[in-house]
Write a structure and sequence with these properties.
This protein is an alpha+beta fold. Helix content is 71%, strand content 9%. Strands 1-2-3-5-4 form a 5-stranded mixed beta sheet, with helices on one face. α2 (45-57) crosses α3 (64-90). The longest helix is centred in the middle third of the chain and has 88 residues, at 180-267. The two termini are 34 Å apart. The mean pLDDT is 75.
Length: 423
């Protein structure tokens, strides 16, 4: 299940790329060939690359500018499209890729944003700043943001040096132009403010998405716990009624049986038929009460499966596959509570730390007990960094005489295997 926040974020990002493409093309076509040639002479990387490629395609000097202009437009469109594709892949909630590939996608976006920044006013760097805060941990996101700011400054240095060498002008007649340092400083501060603003938007979007996941998990946990508690209360009530039937009514029926048996012995041949019938009825009633008590005690099964299915259905991500052996039954409320809390904590750990797409939970019946396998396809766990949640699961399982094994899977992800005595 893809969260609405993620859908909105990805849609807005792609829409921004489309707008930047349209605005950039309009700007380039409006300024024309002379502007592209001027950008090439001012050491702009994308314009210089277009002009050099034009030299490879045409030997005639007269044709190179127009060919370079066409190549420049094509490179601009290609860069925006590559940026959009990388954005879409990097924010995908289901794609599983190596860390190096994920970093590579960000590097491609960073370079493209810096290259086309003069023609997008500078929209792509804002989209990238927003994306950083959404997909990366805070420290890593800030490091990438600083790298983007530095690269933008470095790429603008040839242009700034050219401006410094030229003569400043002002569009107001007779007015003295402000110092160049002031103008460029204000422009730099403005860019910084908008990048930080975009970064904050991504940060709060990510925080909202995580809060939504946590809220959905807490609600599913509450509903599942209520189901399990209601089932335990019903089981306790049946136990109480069965005990009362056995201790009170059963006791009096047994006493009545004894009295009628004594009356039959004392009456001898003068036994009244109604006394004989009363004794038979009392014996049958006592047998039925004992049968009812036995059935109630044998069928005090907790519906742990329904509680776990409710819990798993309420988790938006990762997708949870839950399976049970058909013959499994849970008669002990204590054991059912241990299993429920262990599975609940395992799901919580996967949601918060694994980054997994799929979580599989399998209950299997064994000759000597019950086996539970919980595995995901996430990033696994760092060695020697087991958290309090895993320690808590181990303690619960060992209190019931069970065993727990946990560790990273060879094919990737994390796995927990639980064994419990016959339930």
């Amino acid at each position: 299940m893809t969260l609405p926040t993620l859908k909105i974020f990805r849609t807005v990002g792609m829409l921004a790329c489309a707008i930047m493409l349209g605005l950039g093309l309009a700007s380039i076509m409006d300024l024309g060939l002379q502007q592209v040639q001027g950008d090439a002479s001012s050491k702009n990387a994308l314009a210089m690359l277009a002009m050099k490629l034009a030299g490879l395609f045409s030997a005639a000097a007269a044709d190179r500018p127009s060919i370079g202009y066409t190549i420049f437009l094509s490179l601009f469109i290609l860069c925006i499209c590559l940026f959009a594709i990388a954005f879409w892949l990097r924010t995908s909630p289901t794609a599983k890729r190596p860390t190096s590939m994920a970093a590579g996608l960000l590097a491609v976006q960073l370079l493209i944003g810096v290259l086309v920044e003069p023609w997008t006013e500078p929209g792509l760097v804002y989209v990238f700043a927003m994306e950083l805060a959404f997909v990366l941990p805070h420290r890593a996101a800030l490091a990438w943001l600083c790298a983007q700011i530095v690269l933008i400054d470095v790429s603008a240095m040839p242009f700034l040096l050219g401006v410094v060498a030229g003569k400043q002008a002002c569009n107001v007649a007779g007015a003295v132009p402000p110092p160049l340092a002031v103008v460029m400083g204000l422009s730099w501060i403005r860019g910084m403010i908008f990048q930080v603003l975009a970064f904050c938007i991504g940060y709060f979007a990510n925080a909202e998405m995580r809060s939504r996941i946590a809220l959905a998990g807490a609600y599913a946990d509450l509903v599942a716990t209520q189901l399990l508690l209601a089932d335990a209360i019903r089981s306790s009530e049946r136990e109480r009624i069965s005990r009362n039937l056995h201790d009170a009514i059963g006791h009096h029926l047994a006493a009545l049986n004894l009295q009628l048996d004594l009356a039959m012995r004392q009456a001898g041949s003068r036994l009244i038929e109604s006394v004989r019938t009363s004794r038979l009825l009392a014996q049958r009633l006592l047998a039925e009460v004992r049968a009812v008590v036995g059935v109630e005690r044998e069928h005090q099964v907790l519906d742990l499966r329904l509680a776990l299915e409710t819990l798993c259905a309420g988790i938006p991500t990762p997708r949870i596959a839950l399976s049970f052996d058909s013959e499994l039954a849970f008669n002990s409320p204590t054991l059912a509570h241990t299993i429920f809390r262990s599975v609940q904590e395992s799901i919580s750990n996967a949601v918060r730390h694994s980054g997994a797409n799929i979580l599989q939970i399998v209950f299997s019946s064994l000759p000597d007990g019950l086996a539970i396998s919980i595995s995901d396809d996430g990033k696994g766990m760092n060695k020697n960094k087991a958290g309090n949640g895993l320690h808590g699961i181990r303690e619960r399982i060992e209190e019931q005489g069970g065993k727990l094994e946990a560790g990273n899977r060879i094919e990737g992800g994390f796995s927990i295997k639980i064994w419990l005595p016959q339930c």
